[in-house]
Amino acid sequence: MISMNHINFDAVNQTVEQLKEHPEFKMRKWNATVKWKNGVQNRVSIREFDSYLVDEPETLGGTDQAPNPVEYLIGAAASCFAITFQVMASQEGITLKDVEVQIEADLNAAVFLGLEDGNGGILNPKIILKAETDGSMEQIKAIAETALSKSPVIASLTEKVQLQIEE
User: Measured between alpha carbons, how far is residue 160 from residues 3, 58, 135 in Å?
Assistant: First the structure.
């Protein structure tokens, strides 16, 4: 098995070859089911995994028993960037010792609550990457910039995401 940083490149390469031979398979539908529980709590089910709870802070009518959708969204964006970075660095033969990705973003609660017009989505998203590797800072910066542009979840956001790399 071809592996770097415990990523199974045999499986990745097999997928690449199948898509080259059968481009009609390139599109894949992803699904999630959301079922209302109570108040603003919902339970999200994805494939055969355990469902997870979504709630809101008390200040937005919830019970603060779980992250809210915005927190899951920015968590998904940061983890998608991290995975993209990890795969791309591994493809370049870079050994990963530690990778940490933080994300922060603003949200105008006044728009959400109907007090103002404007962009009700996340604003000013910023990803902070800390990567301990055997690669050079120039390699890490180049891979991180490419990962930012190739991450499917990041590409789904309409606000430009800033990238900060820390040593």
Answer: 33, 30, 27
Is 24 part of a structural domain of the chain? no
Distance in Å from the first CA to the final CA of the chain: 32
Q: Would you say 96 and 129 are in contact if contact means Cβ atoms under 8 Å apart? A: no
Residues 95 and 35 in one domain: no
pTM of the predicted model, to two decimals? 0.90
Query: What pLDDT score does 2 carry?
Result: 76
Q: What is the pLDDT of residues 86-130, one digit of tens each?
A: 999 999 999 999 999 999 999 999 998 999 999 999 999 999 999
45/98 same-domain check: no
Asked if residue 48 is part of any domain, the answer here is yes
